[in-house]
Design a protein that fits this description.
single chain, about 220 residues, alpha+beta, two-stranded antiparallel ribbon, 6 helices, about 25% strand, elongated
Amino acid sequence: MLTREQYDKLTEPLHPSRISKVQGMSHLEAWDVRRHLIRIFGFGGWEFLVGECALVKEIVVPPDKPNGKDRYTVVYRVIGRLIIKDANGDRCALYEDGATGDAVNQPSLGDAHDLALKSAMSQALKRCAVNLGDQFGLSLYKDGDATAVVGRSVIAPEPDVADTYAAQIATASVSGLLAAGKAMRADTSLTAYQRERLTKASAARLAELQRSEPVEPDGSAKP
């Protein structure tokens, strides 16, 4: 089962700064996908395995000038499997997908094979990871939009004490926010992540109240 912090991170919208564009198409870089797999699941919390690898085509292009050298185009096909583990190291999800990768007009046959194989593996990894939702580019399939398309799942971690505070904050007045803040500071059961999450929620609620009715920091209405 995912932790609350993992669930919250997976259901966040994709930050626009992570999106790259190639020929007008939005996508995530493979290194960025790997970075966020590590950040969310840990260094040992995921595996990518190659289930099938095949050389599709190897083309030798003769030189078009005297004393020129051959150039090479290579295409590979890869079927990859992404395994996600929970905090105990037990497998909780497996995704499988495939992709092709090519290296075009390369001067070295070895480099052509290397680049094509790496490209196919990277594409297969990204296609597997997209099943994890918006943090891994799912929303980009909707016209390249970073707006979250998942948002939540009915299968989620059990509510914790931070969820109770969050529910209070969502409808609190300014004085209620002050009272909740005092209670949270005294609550030693809250983790650093939970405190950060609740601080952001309190700031957002205060900004909402300020827009509707400007108030002083002590909760009184501004003259």
